[in-house]
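Hey everyone, long-time lurker, first post.

I ran two proteins through the pipeline my lab uses and got sequence/structure pairs for each. Pasting them in order. The first:
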Amino acid sequence: MTITPSLKGFFIGLLSGAVVLGLTFAVLIAISQIDKVQRSL
């Protein structure tokens, strides 16, 4: 039973890391898209 808390924390860390990575990629893509639009104007 001592394994479950560490596993829970591990999964929470993985999830938060994935969310942070996803947000970072979304921001980078948005910035590049905005840059393209501004250059085409």
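...and the second, right after it:
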Amino acid sequence: MKNYKQIYISALLLFFFGHSVLNSQNNTNDNGLTFKSPTYVASAIFNWPQLNADSYGYNNLDFFLTVEKEAPNFYWAHQFSFVNGKSAYMGLQTTASFKGEQTKIAIFSIWDSKGVESAANGFSEAFGHEGSGYSCRIKYNWQEGRKYRVRVWELEKAVAPETGTWWGSWVMDMETEKEEFIGKILVPKSWQRLAPVSYNFTEYWGSQDGNRHPCSTVGYTYTVYDYPTMSNGAVKPTDAIFERNDECASLSKTGQIGPNKYQVEGW
């Protein structure tokens, strides 16, 4: 029993020491590394079971994350695409704009979409940066150390004279099981459903002035992601590929930490 206790204590010391060293690197030694915003810290690419020739795609995707340490101007997101259409993403942000204030939000966006309806307590808008489309967001005071699920579902078909399909997004606190609606977005019928590839990313979007900035000026974050699922949890990814941003790679790390779970840490 004593040996198990020693191993446990050693593991804890190694865990916290590793975090403190990486955090120290972020604050004191960037070796001249710079980046141009917006940029990502790390990403994970997920491949899914291939669709049958007569399939229209998946009608649901669930994204799970636990932000253990947050920092300003970050976006923790999952990006997906449609079988015959464009891309979309959903997730959580810090210091985002919401009705004139800077706050935490949950957000859902689709490129080249045709219409949008916001939640009763949220708002929606057209966007024109990095492409164009519609976005929904709600003020959402998510907390460090809590696990959240952000999901998208195919909803009802659009009513004539419009043609297309509505897709809705929700966010849930997995501890309280309280779920909130983010909004819904209309896409062309020809897009069909969700394609069998998607990915998570951790993005820094501050300092968008066109200049390069030291990597050490970005706040330190640590996030645990559970693997996403489709078809209400029935379908899981066939594999995952982890990547770090080359520009600031020495200040970050990512990789699997358990079955269907991985971490992103750094900057």
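Reply from user beta_strand_b:
Welcome! Quick read of the second one: Residues 115 and 186 are 5 Å apart (CA to CA). The domain at 2-266 is CATH 2.60.120 (Jelly Rolls).
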